[in-house]
Amino acid sequence: MQPRNMSMSGVVDLAAVKAASEAKAKAEQARAQRQSGDAGAAPASPLVIEVTEETFESDVLQRSAEVPVVISFWADQAEQSKQLNTVLTRLAGQYRGRFVLATADVYANQLLFQQFGVQGVPAVFAVLAGQAMPLFQGAAPEPQIAEVLDQLIAVAEQRFGIVGPEVDAQAVPEAEPEPPRLPTAQELALSAGHDALDAGDLGGAIQAYKNVLADEPANIEAKLGLAQAELLNRVQGADPAAVRAAAAERPTDVQAQLAAADLDLVGGHVEDAFSRLVDTVRRTFGDDRDTARLRLLDLFEVIGPDDPRVTAARAALARVLF
């Protein structure tokens, strides 16, 4: 979802902790203290914090009276949300205190998750003067995120008088790079299948794809790879002229029609292959009909379910069967 324009529509009620007028007064007071030196020599608050339900009051609600707080809801299983946190951390450094980033693990903070009405992660909110507003759901390009932050900072100052104190660039922590993610066993098996297929090792490719599907039957990439490998294995060593002659001489011979359909598909004649097998289903009965139907479904996997030629052939098959 694209970042949205800043407005106070859709704010999340956080128990009315701070009214706008009260927040503005506190912001003015804090700014006056910093200018007069009464704030003391305490070090600047960190720009990136990990918030919990126990620290939410002090780290987010109270702080939002003096600086915009951006909350990023994330989960360890959602890689996209961790990547977004890396981007937001980098931006927190670049903005040097104009906003504070608070990250919240949704599994460790179910109450916050529910209170903000989070539908999924990544999800990013802002808290101003004790009230929260949604910023965006899902990932977004860094320039667009920066635009949203600019809007947030402008609303904070114009509506609430909240201006975060500028922090020395040397005090800003740099975002730690994400450690490289190791491939899973399934990904390794899938890669092995692709490598074997590229090398012409059709038997090895078939076995590798079957290994993936044994653990993950719905894996679309493995299904496609297996269908391609099995198709190439069937036509390997075939005599095209002999195969086509046999199919022409024996129109009711299921095996002859299957072999010819395989050659049609490998040769790029997709509609011919589909039409041949639909006609074979029409002319046959019992086990022969089922064999032709299943081969046609296998060839659909090779081309892909979204291809319009597959859609048309499925409709033709349905008319024959029903």
TrEMBL record:
Keyword annotations of the record: Redox-active center
Source species: Actinacidiphila acididurans
This protein's name: Tetratricopeptide repeat protein
Matches recorded under CDD domains: ybbN
Family: Belongs to the thioredoxin family.
The Thioredoxin domain, residue ranges: 21-154
Keyword Oxidoreductase in record: no
Stored InterPro entries: Thioredoxin-like_sf (IPR036249), Thioredoxin_domain (IPR013766), TPR-like_helical_dom_sf (IPR011990)
Native organism taxonomy: Bacteria, Bacillati, Actinomycetota, Actinomycetes, Kitasatosporales
Mitochondrion keyword on record: no
